[in-house]
Amino acid sequence: MLKLLKYEWKACARVCLPLYAAVVLLAAVNHLTMNGAVQEMLFGIPTIVLAMLYTGVMVAVFVVTGVILLQRFYKNLLGDEGYLMFTLPVTVTQHIWSKLLVAVVMSDIATLAALLSIGILFDGMGAMSGFGSLLADLGHLFTGTGHDLLYMIETAVFLMLTALTGMLFLYLCIALGHLAKKHRVLMAVVWYFVLSTVGQSLLMMLFIGAAELGDPVTTLADFVRGLGPVAGMHVVLLGLCAGMAAVGAAFFAGTRYILKNRLNLE
């Protein structure tokens, strides 16, 4: 498993990390051009060109990251490389987890690089001071009542589960699309829209059904309120985590089943 993670990380990092460094560097260069003397140089053309270049690289950070991560799953497990990958002494579960963990970590690094570049770019406009205030506020959580820290941990867990579930959903769509004999990438896109529509419809039906239930829902809401604001918030956050984990587990099970029992590398 560790060797899989190491191999996957190297394959993604050699493309993505230089791009993240480039967006931070371009942000620093653009920040230096935000003074009047530079902006007036050559009718402001260098400033405009650098700003356009920064914008293009910023877009590329997320587009390239998404393409690389999905391409790694598709080509490495469902493409020609799959013949080699599935001869390794590792399970299908380990294959999926190695892709999933690196994908989520790389997505987080991309987001941090983008936020850092924005902070550098607009340092003179007070963005970094605002970011510093946010960090200070987060620091107070460690010296608060204790519940604040738990809220932060529970929220972080929920966000992490959301990221994992979102990536697993894409993996499931790719795996389902691969079941087709032709136009597998197109079918993966079709499955994405089909499953997204079904999920939104089920969620809407759930809300409508909850509204029509009336008394049971009211009783549950009263029970949560009766726990008090502190315990009630913990129940809500933990419930969201459990729900997201259940959805992610379903996506994982579906992807694993296809890779293990319905895999067709022809």
Query: What percentage of amino acids are in beta strands?
Result: under 5%
Largest beta-sheet characterization: none
| Computed structural class | mainly alpha
Estimated helix fraction: over 70%
- The count of helical stretches stands at 10
Q: Give the C-alpha Rg.
A: 23 Å
Mean pLDDT: 79
Order of helices and strands: HHHHHHHHHH
Distance linking N and C termini: 26 Å
Q: Quick one: overall form?
A: globular
**Count of DSSP E strands?**
0
Low-confidence stretches: none
How would you characterize this protein structure?
The chain is mainly α. Helix content is 84%, strand content 0%. It contains ten helices and no strands. It is globular and about 65 Å long. It starts with a helix and ends in a 5-residue tail after the last helix.
